[in-house]
């Protein structure tokens, strides 16, 4: 068996950084002048933990700064690893290649954005005062809020770090059980994050719902996994793959087990009809957390899904995967459901939640195109590239949108769309960025959202357009002869058209409604910078050299992922 | 108004323009036809000049007084055109010139393109639609008529328009549009291809629209303008399709190519007469629209809403002649002696029928008109119809090979165009003079307040003007005589020919021609009646309203054109006949000259007119003279004739005529004028009502239906998609009940359906 | 020694009961318990597998799964408590401020 | 990358526009509040500069190009292509020929004019830079020879136009802007699918498409033999492309976004919309659909004729039923655009040249129409036909421009529209015979609705010294149009007449291009396709 020494820690740098961050988070804010008296002596030895805290570390900002630094360095290290093409394996549970590094980068970057937004969303004030009897109710409440925020800084960021740890390990696991455990680590922490604002009614409710539905989904998933174990006796992905390929006909244990796991991951990515708790969770959670769920959590779900669908159950080239049809149907239902439901949503967070459901549908459509088995390695890579690329840039513009909502949320309400009213008059740059995010979500060129959507449609068409009859001379004979996966492309296109309605509506509201208040938005200087940076990147990743290099990286990642088989 | 005598010096600055021709001829060594571009170019450039200067310097005293709000510029431009036209005319007529039968000058290539043949190769020759001029006897004649009359009418307008306060500050528009209109006519006549003919033709349509709607605030004027444009547009569309067919046949629209050999089309293919027939018929529809023939005649009476000079311009000098010119251009197609195509007789018959019907109809409507300009308008329609009949007959003769008869009919028709244009131009100007002075008198009495709905154009308000307006009365008398066809005067020389040839065709060759023949013969008599009626109602008898006593013939710029045209009308027809104009116009000769000495030619001509060899012709001729000269005027005199008021004296000729008119007794026609027939005639035989009704019941509802369809069905479908999507959205959002139990249930259902999908598809 | 298939069969029944219970019951605590049932059914499967394959991993999986279940319950109860403190209910039916 | 002029004229306006847009946000308030005048002057200067460059290109001062002698399939002013996203084969490749150059020139012309017409636009510091961005996007569509870039620019034009309608539009602007954006975007994503299908049938070129092995290079696609092997798929792609292009043109039955967009758009917006954006549809159709799939085009000639006829005839009838001036003008655009399909359907050099000239002529005339309608709205606060009468008294210039524009649009000779109409109709008669009566008679309908609208606006005031004023003026006397409106319309009117009398200025290059187009592209397809003639026979059968 492997010993711990076999695991090269230098390839787990992001995880190690996050662990260290966690430790520091626990230790540093608690540093104080506590002394312990040596027994039987009068000597007091400073133990530094507890007591009156040092003024330097008693600052409630410390945890968020630690989190930001941790995530930034983890993200950076992931990038470095990615660029260095670091590959390593620690069989049977961990494997590191470009794919995993890319996803660690995505996760940690998303978490970095979460921490930056949370820095303003969960403001900490060093001059918090205890309310006394003289205060009015309002000022009392605000004081209590400040105190509460100060107190729970550490909790929040530790949870974030745990989410990060779980996610990064999900990407790296090559053992199904390991994968699941890490997924649970991330999930459980995110349930708490969703319900973090326990003082508000919706916070608790959102947490409950998300937790209940999520737990049921993971219970189903674990059960499915146990079935797989019954079938194979081994949950290593490589072994499962092998067994799957040597399987003559579909074993019911295997089939049902995989299906059940698909349900669990379907919940994570927000596929219909498992997505129903997502909008509630997003709207109940604070915007940074919602952004995290919409980007990193979804990406994590997709990683897990890809592991199952593309590695384990993928048949030999030329054969159709058994899940293809089901996934295709689900993807169409998902995107349509998401878009339709978003159409009339008055809550921007719900709207974005539904939109992220729709995006999941697009990506699943692309996945099911791989499932047709029509493509060779190249074209499969292309589609996978599209999906990964989409997941990557989604962090930019979807999270960007949630960061803008964070700004709005700070001043009261982001639960109705009217919070965005007249944003352009209050803050043109933020409004413009929001508009760019919306257009990118809608897939309007030349923004990066367009490029990813184009690549996905591209991939589907690439696989399917060749299947039509070559000898057909009329349109209809061709249409009847083409693989039905082709219509997924059309479905995506029509759905993009529907989605324009609500994305543009945001633009409309920002530009035309009279603002509820004329007060300028929060200063939140770093958040602003981040938003603008995200908008810029959204633009630059759409066309030009940056998109080129990003595509190259993603493509290599996709190759490294598929090469495993 | 006022100090009139001093206005003539205004045109002194134009005198240097007289140097243009000498300079071009001697200094630049140009040929006359090389200078023809000036005829078009100068008005074309003056048009925006007047418009812009007028708009900028509007209300400027100097602009008003010195340039007559652009009148002087317009006059100069038209003068140049006239001058060059005369130069060309002289060149053409003088024998030492290089003119062949016609002349073409190519200016520039308008558009060029290649043609894909049916064997999928590009035709080696690039096709060119060019711009140039084409001159032959017909175009020269019409060019002269147009330039000459435009010049005179412009001259007249400077008196007529600038003295009317209602026109103040708007005259630059009038002159600019006037000049453009003239340009259109000149261009059309000079054009060397059917396409450019059509282009200028349309320009005239535009200008007629602008000028008829000159009094833009009048609802009736706006309506009339629209009606004129649209009615002619209907014809124009058919004309355009005709051009397309012609182009398809010949691969070109230029006269030179087509007339070279009309029987062979593009690439030497033989032309099918059937196809050509349709082409020509469609061209004729265009002509019908432009020349206001039945059934597209409805616009012309309404067009009297424009200022009187405009009426003169449209009816005499320019627009209505365009249709005639176009039909005249059809001759080479049907002339079987010169490569024409046989089998197009029906075309001639159709044209003659349309002409006959229109002539009769217009004349009968003219019986009951009381508006002096309306009478003239219907007379125009009627006379044009004469010409159409003549042309139809000529085409028929040409096509059946009766070359000589065809020449006479054709020449006579063209000559009638000349006579009619001169006479009608003068008549309109004279009527303008009457209207103007009556209006002034009325203004003078009532201090500009028109509270009793006095209509200065209504002949029932006139009478007895012979003594007040001697020049006008004389001019109008000669004009009417020319139209009536009083022997020796103007129209007589041409009308005789038309009627005689029509009858000849009917009697000798083609029984179908009887109807037009009878109709135009009847019309001759009716012309005699209504023209006399008009003159008598206006000038003879006692004044029928108080304003007449205050009428003076005092406005400047008005008399000269009248005088000039009176002379031309009175003796022009005879003199030109002496010179063999009919043969010239029919392109039988290239020159105008007398055969033999003066005396013998005079005798020849007279004999030819009154005592032709052919018995039928002689009979018809005398019947015509009898009807038009004796019966018609006497009937009119019995109803409307009468002496002037006591103490009023007119000049001898007119005085005699007035007193003669009272000699035939009087007849009360009030019963007749209240009859159904009269009502129908007064309502223009209900054509306008009918068209209006049809349009209001078909086109407008259909347009509204289309708009509704677009809004409700096509756009409605889009809106349906939108609203259905919103509805679907609300529905689908209701699935998210908020209850976690339902979410789990849905997830379970989803799980089940996944398995159903997987295994359902697998088996 | 019990035949592993019996264990699996028991697991299936437990899973079914748990799943049905999750959307049958309103009370969040009961639902939580049903989820525990489902997790336990998975554990039974792991145990059965471990027995069948004589693979020690199965036991480990079971142990970890129980740990996960414990964590889940801990977190779940905390969240339910926070909901109860604001909404004064733990009925999944009544907690539906967030909807549509 | 070498310095090439097409890239410069495309990129410059976009970047300067963006900078000018962002400048007031970045600079302190005191400075940015004074920026309006500077901004619009800079915008105008750049627009004029580009116009001068385009004009110099036309006269050959730059590049020394013989425009009448560009063989079909060749492009002038090509740049040295460099890849933008090389892994999927996107490159920056530009070039122009006689098909696109008139459009380029038109764009560079219309931008300064529309700036001029709305010189005093509110929030001018945003308005004029947006127009600049618009210019860049439009030029990008016409110059790019890479379908990806083409598509990007194609959609990029939507954004400034969307904002123009949204910010400066009329009362119902939100609905109109949304409809405009979503409608055309939806249509063009179908086009995108078509492009992608083509993309996947391209052969690899070295250095391009390292990831996919394909490329978007239009020139190479045209050069590739048998781009899509399956004929059924070719037809399908053709139809997908048609959906995108026909919606942009727009053709009945996918035209209903246009009236709404126009009615709500600001004057400059509708000028550009009608003047250039509609032409993008026809341009793309010729450049991509017809060039790449000539055989499909021939097969679908009956469809083209149907669409063209439907737009032309039905559009004209709908026009007649309108009571809103701008709506009427918008529908007239639909009607005129129908002629373009008819021209292409003839498959004659003359017809295609006519269609090209129609694009050009309509690009000059319709901005004039919309400038007039815009000024009408601006000064009388209404667009209802008949509510304001007697403009001839109140604003002789406006009525003059109106008269000119209306007349030009109804196809009066010596104006640009007539040339195209005649050319198309001649070619149409040659191919389809009596069917030409339908478009021809539509000219009467066109005349009817134009004249009726003029009768009720310019004329009929019932009093020589007063017009009938609309309620929307609240009893105020209307002002005359401003000098900049006047100048803009004046230039357009002048050009209308100039190109009517001397069409050969642009006609010659269009004509030689169409000849090349027919011989190089269509003839072979026609020969291959016996159905060409049988199609027409079939059409005739149906009509009988």
Note the topology.
The complex is a heterotetramer of chains A (565), B (763), C (100) and D (544).
Chain A: H1 13-27, E1 35-37, E2 44-46, H2 55-58, H3 62-83, E3 88-90, E4 94-96, H4 98-121, H5 137-172, H6 176-194, H7 201-232, H8 237-245, H9 252-269, H10 277-284, H11 287-312, H12 324-343, H13 348-371, H14 377-410, H15 423-426, H16 428-442, H17 448-464, H18 475-481, H19 486-512, H20 525-540, H21 545-562
Antiparallel strand pairs in A: 1-2, 3-4
Helix pairs in contact in A: 1-3, 1-5, 3-4, 3-5, 4-5, 4-11, 4-14, 4-21, 5-6, 5-11, 6-7, 6-11, 7-9, 7-10, 8-11, 9-11, 10-11, 10-13, 11-13, 11-14, 12-13, 12-19, 13-14, 13-17, 13-19, 14-16, 14-17, 14-20, 14-21, 16-19, 16-20, 17-19
Chain B: H1 20-27, H2 37-56, H3 61-65, H4 71-93, E1 103-113, E2 127-135, H5 137-160, H6 171-190, H7 194-212, H8 219-250, H9 255-260, H10 273-290, H11 299-302, H12 308-317, H13 319-328, H14 331-334, H15 345-366, H16 372-400, H17 403-446, H18 470-484, H19 492-509, H20 514-539, H21 559-578, H22 581-585, H23 598-610, H24 615-640, H25 652-661, H26 670-673, H27 676-682, H28 687-735, H29 740-762
Antiparallel strand pairs in B: 1-2
Helix pairs in contact in B: 2-4, 2-6, 4-5, 4-6, 5-6, 5-12, 5-17, 6-7, 7-8, 8-10, 10-13, 12-17, 13-16, 15-16, 15-20, 16-17, 16-19, 16-20, 17-18, 17-19, 17-21, 18-20, 18-21, 19-20, 19-24, 20-24
Chain D: H1 5-26, H2 29-32, H3 35-59, E1 82-85, E2 90-92, H4 101-117, H5 124-143, H6 147-156, H7 158-168, H8 173-199, H9 218-223, H10 231-248, H11 257-264, H12 267-292, H13 294-299, H14 301-320, H15 325-346, H16 349-380, H17 391-394, H18 396-409, H19 416-432, H20 437-455, H21 483-501, H22 504-528, H23 531-543
Antiparallel strand pairs in D: 1-2
Helix pairs in contact in D: 1-3, 1-5, 3-4, 3-5, 4-5, 4-12, 4-16, 4-21, 5-6, 5-7, 5-12, 6-8, 7-8, 8-10, 8-11, 10-12, 11-15, 12-15, 12-16, 14-15, 14-20, 15-16, 15-19, 15-20, 16-18, 16-19, 16-21, 16-22, 18-20, 18-21, 19-21
